[in-house]
Structures are given as structure tokens and as C-alpha cells.
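Researcher: I need the complex structure. Ligand is calcium ion. Inputs:
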Amino acid sequence: MEMLEEKKMELWNEIDQLARNWINQAGDQIRASFQKTLNIESKANRNDLVTNIDKETEQFFIGKIKSTYPEHRILGEEGFGDELKSMDGIVWIIDPIDGTMNFIHQQRNFAISIGVYENGIGKLAYIYDVVHDELYFAKKGEGAFLNGERIQPLRKVKTDEAIIALNATWLVTNKHLDHHLMSSLVRKVRGVRSYGSAALEMVYVATGRLDAYISPRLAPWDYAAGKLIVEEVGGKVSTFEGNEVSLIQKGTLFVSNPFIYDELLNDYIKVAKIQTDRK
Ligand code: IPD
Ligand code: CA
Ligand code: CA
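Model: Output:
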């Protein structure tokens, strides 16, 4: 029994070392791409962008993972991984570039996001802010770290002193959230920000730079890593109904400092969610 536990620990340490190494290499490649011309295409709509770098980065990770751990499965945004129907075994959930629009327009405010799960439980999480060379990392049960320094547990905040992240789309008529109620939330809190990268917005909640993040339309690769990082510092991650987020299907995401979670969820988010909104 003890032997098995030791072997497992060794495996997770090895996965961690390799993941860091691959993330560094991918970061170098992404930084080098700033000097080159990007090949930009659109996906579901004209603002849903993908570049050759998103695709190459995902293929790079998948190549490394599959050649080292052929039994591991991979869910990647750009579709080069496996088709997942369950979270059985070890599953890597990868967003090669979260914040592609920022990557293209700003060359900042984007990140590599990788969550490694075992039977549906987050074990390791990495969000790498490539431009600032900042690696946010969490290991299940061992806390979260920014470039090796422990991120402190989230402290008490009050709603009227909170800064929340919210896309301006949800403050005009839209089919996901009642914008009147969202406007009253905006008036209630101290400030509102929007960075355009779910992964970064989640680690900003984890580090207390933001106190909540609300998004009605995200995919598992947007939040798989951020979920573990936020939870390891005591933050809350749920759907707009207050349920566990799915790692297989798209859905709503509410991330919050634990001290304002109930109030924001019950007084604003649950009520603002437009009920006809079925995905
Ligand atoms: C997007 C970003 C953005 C969020 C979008 C995501 P992508 O991810 O996280 O902040 O509002 O819904 O799709 O496409 O840049 O990886
Ligand atoms: Ca994304
Ligand atoms: Ca992406």
C-alpha cells in the first residue's frame, strides 16, 4: 500500500516536472512568434479567432503528452486531442492560448492554461502568463503558487468594496443575463474590469486582484486549470446555479472570493440568469 502511494507521488512529480518544461518551451515559441506574421482564421463567428500559433501550441503539448503517456487522454480547444465522454483516468485539459483576441491585437493579456485531472479530480494546474513570465500553479491539497511563491488564502472582502470581472456584453441586451440586474450589481460593487482571458481572470481572483468573475458561456478548457488554483486558496467556483462546473460540457461560470459568493450568487447571478438559456 505504502509502496503504491510512493509510486503515485513519483508519477505526479514527474508529470509536474515535464509539464513545466513543456510550458517553458511553448512560451519560448509563442514569444518568438511575435516577430512573425500570424495566420488568423475565424471559427464559430467572425470574432472567434484562432491562429497557427494556437494550433501549433496545442499540437506541441499533445505530441509531448502522447509520446510520454500514451494512456493519458487530452481535451484541447483546437480539437487535436481526444473526444471525451468521461473524465476516467488521467485527463489533460488544454487551452493553448486563452485570450486569442488579445494575443493577436495586444500581444499581452493571454495565457497557456493546462489542468491535469485524475478521475474528475483536479491534481495539477498551470496558467502561464507568457508575456510577464508568470506561472500560476496549484497542486491538489498543497496550495497555489505564483512563480514558486505561495499565494495566500483569500481574505474577507465586502461586496461594496469588491472589484469584479465582467464582459460589457452582459450589460447590454443579451440572451444569457438580465442586463438590468447586472447593472445593479455594477452599481453595488467598487469596480468592474474585463481582461478578455478567463484563465487570467480566474488567477486574478485567486490572488485577490479581483474578487469575482462572471461569464455565462465558457468551455472546460477555459476554466479547468483556474478551478483548482482558485479552490486551493479557498475561492469558490460554480455554475450560475451554484453547482459544480462540467469538465466535459460548456456552461456558465461564477468564480468568487468565498466571503461574497453567497450574496452575489443568490441576489444577482441566479436571478439574472435568463432561464430560456439552454445549451
Ligand atoms: C476566450 C477568453 C475570453 C472569454 C471567451 C473565451 P479563447 O478564450 O477566455 O475571455 O470571454 O468566452 O472563449 O477563445 O481566447 O481561448
Ligand atoms: Ca479560452
Ligand atoms: Ca484558446
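Model: Summary of the prediction. The first strand starts at residue 40 and ends at 42.
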